[in-house]
Amino acid sequence: MIALLLSGAGAISPPLNAQERPLVIALGAEPRSLLAMHIVDWTTNVQALNIYDRLYYWDGMPPRIKPSLAAELPQTPDDRTWIIKLRPGVKFSNGDPFTADDVKFTIEWLLDPKNKTHYLPRFSFVDSVEAVDPLTVRIRTKEPAPVLRYYLVDFDVLDAKYVRAVGNDQANRQPIGAGPYKLVRWDRDERLVLEANPTYWNKPPAIKTVEFRFIPDFSARLAALLAGEADIVKDVPPFAVDQVNRSGSVEVRGVPSSRINYVALVNFKPGPLQDRRVRQALNYAVNVDELITNLFKGRATRIPGALSGLNEDVNQNLKPYPYDPARAVQLIKEAGYDPARLEFTMDSPSGRYPLDKEAAEAIASYLGRIGIKVRIQVNEWGTHLDKIVNRRTGEMFYLGWGPALEAQGTIAELFRPDRTYSGFGTPAVTDEVNKAIPIVDRAKRLAAWSRVQVMLYTEAPWIFLWQQHDLYGVNKRLTWQPHPAEKIYLWDAAWTR
Amino acid sequence: MLQFVARRLVEAAVVVFLALTAVFALQFLAGDPVKLFLPTDTTPKQIEEFRTRLGLNDPWLVQYVRFMSNALRGSFGDSLRQRESALLLVLERFPATLALSGVAMVLALATAIPVGVVSAARRNSWFDHVGITTTVLGQAIPGFWLGLMLIYVFSVWLHWLPTGGRGSWLHFIMPSVTLAAFVAARFARLTRAMMLDVLDQDYIRTARAKGLAPPRVLYKHALKNASLPIVTLLALQLGQLLGGAVIVETIFAWPGVGRFLVQALLNRDFPVVLVGVFLTAVLYSVLNLLADLTYAWLNPRIRYG
């Protein structure tokens, strides 16, 4: 079907006055909320992030933290105190000045259970927030919480005066932020229209009007791109890349994402996967490089351990497990098992990550070559999550994780047995992770996470796979590059010619 | 007549009640909605708190009684996903679906009935054969495939029509054709079959013998008598259209109820699903009631049945 759609492509849109042409981004759904720091959801956040501005953001490649509404990186005079200097002269789109009070309000707002935000658990270590002066915020934490450094990234700031005056419902329907764009119209299940915010502190955005259009069906989104009705569409399937590129007016732009894909090897139940040698053997038995070349046409980047190469805390010294089926068989025998009598079930989603089901099947067939029988259980996404959370998967499950640009959000969540999405845990790993979490000093922290990564490499709690590449279908006339943390920032997008 | 209506209304209430009970039971099979809404770093303790707040930890009987009494008062709670009144979220999408279904139904009837009548009148002619073949195709082609083909031809290739969304009358064309194809085939076949039946009757021969003009015999005498089953089918197919709207609205990005409910189902957004089932059951019952009343009007003998 997609191939058919592609073969007839060749849309030519009538030339409009340079930057007056609206930029249309096709998404699968409308936002669940337009309040900042309310809901964690890609589709929601990618729309709101053009209305709000944030204290810090991930910039460049590899991504590093850069101030936006903050004036500089945070200072930590002691383990529990954080000082944030703010950028002077910033205004919200309604003209309200941006001050320390807005940052204080936003943190206290998200911590108030009444507001039912997803961010409450993340910031639960916050003890107090003070506006020291209009451009200085001081945050004190109950315990040393170095991860706050990362939680301040993508921290979108609400207009305190406005939200206090109108309440959450109105602030959701008619959001006010300090971002490059402001809301014009939100037609339910149809479109969200934004226009350039004249009070934006940074260089005014080149494109004056932006429209997010909600098209739930993927093939229809792609058709909208090819018909010239949409200018950006996310997640072009790898097999369709060449055809999209041949279509004329649109092209695929890819970026190695900070989202990783892996096969978890669950060690919560008795069985062969309790044995580290069996888990290592499964890593030796799968030819990941071949999968990347053949199945993904090179559009995936291998990871040797639990973190992507883009991660600030990645241990650069790890080398991927080589493909060595003989070694795999030997390890399994050393562990006291006969590979020909091993049988596992692997749960996989379908269509959630690039070629997830296909990759799961290919991995099963590699394991089949050394005699291991793997049954693939394909789940609808909600069911898949439910099975992972309730520990009802088979011995293996396929999952993606990210965007992740620092260690704690991945390692502390996925390798401690009490965590929601974990599939693995040993007392030694838990212990090392718990030691790393409170370390504030950057160098010591990096060293601690490096040690944990070496441990995990040896423990082999996953079949380590790859960073997925995010593939966007983009109008060729648009100057815009995809972001490794899945953001669609539009402040520097522009039409050429 | 009044008694007839009253009895039908009681039956309708039972249907709605049973539908709600069934959905309430099904949500226990469908898995836990809570984790789908919370971010991945939520702790098990926080998940439990959230469940308690939503009342998901109460015994099922307590949940059922609370749910039914709320439903009676028209209160279905907030959407888990969007945190707004589930009822309002669904209701504000109804006009879009009704508009699309209405246009599709008119389109379906306007093509299917003439095709059925002419096919019957010219039985075994080339028109009849072409008509039959087309209707078989119409019944066999899946809606999503037809929709995507239309998009491919008329939007991507020819650039005549928008791929989807709402706006001008142009936006109606492809979704309503796709939706109409869903039901038109069945109407055409039924009309043809009923007409063939009726055309063999004595009173038609009499009418012809009287020297009435053939179109008058066909439409005034034959079609009116053949129309009883068509009315039944009409009521049923209006329900079917809502089912078809799920697919059509998804493919053509039409901001209606069908698409919204499917998304709600995939997201385990139960308050929204329950509202959807409630309203659909009510609508179905009302449509059937209307069909029965029309019946009674068309054929007085039924009133006392």
Write the SSE topology.
The complex is a heterodimer of chains A (497) and B (305).
Chain A: H1 2-7, E1 23-27, H2 42-48, E2 56-59, E3 64-67, E4 75-78, E5 81-85, H3 100-111, E6 126-133, E7 136-141, H4 148-151, H5 160-173, E8 181-187, E9 191-196, E10 209-214, H6 218-226, E11 232-234, H7 241-246, E12 250-265, H8 276-285, H9 288-294, E13 300-302, H10 325-334, E14 343-349, H11 356-369, E15 373-379, H12 381-389, E16 396-401, H13 408-414, H14 427-436, H15 442-459, E17 462-475, E18 478-479, E19 494-495
Parallel strand pairs in A: 1-10, 1-11, 14-15, 14-16
Antiparallel strand pairs in A: 2-3, 4-5, 5-7, 6-7, 8-9, 9-10, 11-17, 12-16, 12-17, 13-17, 18-19
Helix pairs in contact in A: 8-10, 14-15
Chain B: H1 2-29, H2 34-37, H3 44-53, H4 60-72, H5 86-91, H6 94-121, H7 126-140, H8 143-157, H9 170-199, H10 202-209, H11 214-251, H12 257-266, H13 270-298
Description:
The complex is a heterodimer of chains A (497) and B (305). Chain A is an alpha+beta fold and 497 residues long. In chain A, 29% of the residues lie in helices and 23% in strands. In chain A, strands 1, 8, 9, 10, 11, 12, 13, 14, 15, 16 and 17 form an 11-stranded mixed sheet that branches. Chain A has a 4-stranded antiparallel sheet with strand order 4-5-7-6, with helices on one face. Chain A has a two-stranded antiparallel sheet with strand order 2-3. Chain A is globular and about 70 Å long. The relative contact order of chain A is 0.16. Residues 1-15 of chain A have low confidence and may be disordered. Chain B has 305 residues and is an all-alpha fold. Helices cover 77% and strands 0% of the residues of chain B. Chain B is built from 13 helices and no strands. In chain B, helix 7 crosses helix 9 and helix 12 runs antiparallel to helix 13 (270-298). The longest helix of chain B is centred in the last third of the chain and has 38 residues, at 214-251. The model of chain B has no long low-confidence stretch (mean pLDDT 82). The interface between A and B is large, with 48 and 46 residues.
